[in-house]
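Could you show me some protein's one-letter sequence and the numbers that encode its backbone in two labelled lines?

___
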Amino acid sequence: MTAIDVAERKSRYRATSFYVFAALSLVTLWVSMAMPGSDLVRGIWTGLSFAAAINLLPLARWLKPNSAVARLLDDDGVREHRRMSCTAGFWASIVSAFAVAITVEEAAPISAFDAVRVVATAAIAAALISFATLELRAARG
């Protein structure tokens, strides 16, 4: 198997895992808000969110700078996808912050911690889904 084949396989695996991370982040946020006293679920949400944010970084390039596969997994196209996905995450955080502000004022008051978790989850999920979609689209094209 060539370095290109390995990089394509790892890229598809990374995109699929990003979809899973995004879904699990949303589910754990929902469950932890439904069960406000559950520190375990909040801890799981924190760990998942941290792991998802770390996985958006170019870890392969930093850990193995001389690897041919790592260079393929972080070429110019992937860097552009990462930049675009972070932009999507930024806009999702802005929109969700406004939505939380309106909701807190009008309907259901939530704690500041829960508001921050909603905004962070929206940003991370949007960035993960955007990056995964762009990567899978590029793999097909």
The mean pLDDT is 88. Residues 3-34 form the longest helix (32 residues). Residues 78 and 135 are 7 Å apart (CA to CA).
